């Protein structure tokens, strides 16, 4: 088992950013600047073609850190960010761009490539969580959430299905072909985002994946707009979801 | 045109409650206790079988008044609350209870009875808004929202479709048979609630009504659970929706 090794640290506007590695996998851990007190952790998964410090990741982390006082960790997926691309990665990316240029469906390529990346990434995510829980400010007994849309869902659904330490998750915007079967093993509360006019994922496909989760408490947020137009206010909603589920003491009368 | 006449006033925990009538129609207006400053108005419609001061109405009003500083008004629907029931009302209610007792579908009765009530109520809602806008603390140029679930949607959809003063609306939990055609004339931002395991309204019916709205900005919130289990946190979400749409100045950087 690999321990977590910090490689850089900076801080801005109330948030500390620490780069780390667990084995070969580079990650980033964002934490409140105000203290080293123990707090819940949210693991996030980035989208396809971007990386652990993409503005969407840093922006979501800032909401969780500054509004809730949580720790937030993201690692680069295989073939993404600071990690090398294999010949297979190059081939699948070329196939995706070719389909896009030809106006052909991207779904079949994304589904199979993301499923391949998930097989590589899921063991890394388990190891990453092991290593993060060795930090005294996280610990082994605190609540842990998972938040990943698009490719973050393709990796996150099999990860959460096999990871009892995750107690609440936000997913969205992926196809049911591979993931529905894994989603049927997930029982923790979820919030799920889909776009009503998604040009890649049909309504039926998006609804089928939401329907597959075995969670007794699950919420679907659908917004008008295409694949890239997920409204910014859904990030606020996800933050409130994690505040509800990872900090029971935040309920008004407690 | 009937003017608004106040008939009673009380106040508790930062909220003033004023009973009023507009013609024959009794209503209630909740306002911030802290001041008589002009503020946006949210009209609400209550559910079938209950009334203007049902705890769901008072609870939603409290959120809007104390968190946003808005005015909130509700009137009793025809045949509800302090208003007399006609022989037709009694007949339809008996038909509904008979269907329920026999385990037969309630939808066809609710759809036709609510459509009947909407025909009576919509002119009253327009007149009610006219009268409310004569109050100096509301005025004719302020933003106005509408919030009604169940029967509040059956009355609210035709009302909002014909009422250009409403600039944002929250609807949910009704059938598309009568309402979809009216929803196609609604273009203001909407938030729409449906229950994934509703024993009365099928998923296809609920999604068809959401789909019908012509609004460029529309959000659907689906939650696991049956007809009566709409989660309490959807009221918080609706309040944030009205805060976003009725008070542009509330946006963070303004």
From TrEMBL, chains A, B:
Gene3D superfamilies in the record: alpha/beta hydrolase (3.40.50.1820)
Domain of life: Bacteria
Species: Streptomyces incarnatus
Identification of the protein by name: Alpha/beta hydrolase
């Amino acid at each position: 088992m690999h321990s977590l090794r910090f490689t850089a640290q900076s801080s801005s506007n109330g948030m500390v950013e620490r780069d780390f590695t667990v084995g070969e996998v580079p990650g980033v851990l964002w934490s409140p600047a105000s203290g080293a007190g123990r707090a819940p952790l949210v693991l996030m998964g980035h989208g396809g073609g971007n990386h652990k410090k993409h503005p969407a990741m840093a922006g979501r982390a800032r909401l969780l850190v500054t509004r809730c006082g949580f720790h937030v960790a993201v690692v680069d997926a295989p073939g993404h960010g600071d990690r090398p691309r294999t010949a297979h990665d190059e081939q699948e990316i070329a196939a995706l761009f070719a389909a896009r240029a030809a106006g052909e469906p991207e779904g079949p390529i994304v589904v199979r490539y993301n499923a391949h990346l998930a097989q590589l990434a899921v063991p890394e995510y388990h190891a990453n969580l092991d290593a993060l829980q060795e930090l005294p400010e996280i610990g082994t007994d605190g609540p842990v959430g998972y938040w990943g849309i698009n490719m973050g869902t393709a990796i996150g659904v099999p990860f959460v299905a096999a990871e009892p330490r995750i107690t609440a998750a936000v997913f969205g915007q992926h196809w049911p072909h591979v993931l529905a079967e894994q989603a049927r093993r997930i029982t923790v509360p979820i919030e799920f985002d889909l776009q009503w006019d998604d040009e890649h994922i049909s309504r039926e496909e998006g609804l089928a994946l939401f329907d597959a989760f075995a969670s007794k408490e699950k919420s679907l947020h659908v917004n008008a707009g295409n694949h890239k137009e997920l409204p910014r206010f859904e990030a606020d909603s996800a933050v409130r979801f994690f505040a509800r589920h990872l900090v029971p003491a935040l309920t008004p009368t407690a």
